[in-house]
Amino acid sequence: MQEPLSPIGTATDQALILLDPATLAIVQAGGCAQEVLGFSSVRLCEMSLTDIVADPPPEQLRKLLRPMTDADGGELTLRASLRDKSGRTIPAELLLVRLAGPEEQALTTVVRFYRDRAGRDSEPRLEPGDRKFVDFAGRLGHDLNNLLSTVIGSLGLIREDVLEESDDEKLQLVDDALSAGRECADLVDRLMTAAGKQFLRPRRVAVNSIIERLAPLLKQTLPADIEVQVSLDPDVPDLELDPDRLEAAILDLVVNAREAMPSGGELTISSGMGKAAGALPTLASDQDFVQITVRDAGAGIPEALRSRVLEPLFTTKSGGSGRGLGLSMVNGFVQQSRGALSVDSTPSRGTCVTLNFPAADRPAT
Q1: Number of neighbours of residue 343 by Cβ within 10 angstroms
Q2: Beta-carbon count within 10 A of 139 CB
Q3: What is the side-by-side strand order in the sheet with 340-346?
Q4: Which residue has the higher pLDDT, 100 or 278?
Q5: Structural domain boundaries of the chain?
Q6: Model pLDDT, residue 227
Q7: Beta pairing class for 53-55 and 226-231
Q8: Which of 218, 307, 291 is CA-nearest to residue 258?
Q9: Do residues 347 and 300 lie in contact, with contact meaning Cβ atoms separated by under 8 Å?
Q10: pLDDT, tens digit (0-9, with 9 covering 90-100), for 261-276
Q11: What is the structure's pLDDT at 231?
Q12: Class of domain 14-113
């Protein structure tokens, strides 16, 4: 009979976790792991490594760790993001060592959390409107747009020559390259918008007309289990902004709402007037603003992440599936249009995003 494992020490900046190498189930976790991740020792021992690692995703993580199943032992270091009890992701480095003995085998994992002396995550953060991000995105976007214009223009000329040759294989290659170039240009465009550096074409627009034009398209393209409701204030005044960018902003919010409701639910788009309570940046408290609201009935945003949702490049999607530009792009457009955005979310009840703009006949404050 094997003797019980001795307790893993807690007085360390590194967390120690013992794993079953065959299943990656957590056998024992040190006090630091419990403290940082927010799970009790009992709860952690009911979980596996894939339950607490947000990135790489489970299948990729298992593939990376496959060499560690070698009974002769081994060692592996990899960067990862761990998910704590609240759903927040924490940057970390994992050092995994396979220990093999005559009677037992264990996969020892040393987790180095990237945290500062105050105990906060030291992963670089970009606040909404961060001057370094704005300047960097502006310069980068300008240079990339110039390069992409040359690439896309040249490919267009090459395509004309290939059409004359009637070479379908070459034509497909050129079309693929053109498509990739346009996708890059769109990504640069979104980056510039998130930084508030996008070229806008503002004009006086009727908010309700834009929503009414979008609603039928949304109802046709969203899954059947998502019910779209539209509630418009008939007396809402006009706005002075770029209508195409406003449509794109509403569509981005609808996409976020759809992803928050994988099992369906109600999605409401509304217009009205109201105070910009909780909006960033802060607007005049004694003034009513035109408000466009997109509300879903999804999972909501964990409280620990709510303060970060407007950060450029921040995403809650794992496995690199999100660029972190969606909501920050909407926020960049709203601020560039003299408005402000507010987010209200309750876990398990849904999220409400409100775009606040000054009416066209009123000065911005």
Answers
A1: 18
A2: 11
A3: 226-231, 265-274, 289-295, 350-357, 340-346
A4: 278
A5: 14-113, 131-194, 203-357
A6: 93
A7: unpaired
A8: 218
A9: yes
A10: 988 999 999 999 998 8
A11: 95
A12: alpha beta
Whole-prediction pTM: 0.51
Q: What is the pLDDT of residues 198-243, one digit of tens each?
A: 667 889 999 999 999 988 888 877 888 999 999 999 999 999 998 9
Strand ranges in the chain using DSSP code E only, listed in sequence order: 14-19, 26-29, 53-55, 74-83, 89-100, 105-113, 203-205, 226-231, 239-241, 265-274, 289-295, 340-346, 350-357
Q: Hey, what are 304's tokens? A: 């620990």
- Contact in structure between 204 and 238 (CB atoms under 8 Å): yes
Other CB atoms within a 10 A radius of the CB of residue 102 amount to 5
Q: Which two tokens stand for residue 37?
A: 């991740």
Mean pLDDT of 96-100: 68
The predicted structure's pLDDT at residue 55 = 85
Q: Can you say how many angstroms the Cα of residue 143 is from the centroid of all Cα atoms in its chain?
A: 25
CATH code for residues 203-357: 3.30.565.10
| Two tokens, residue 337 | 């249009």
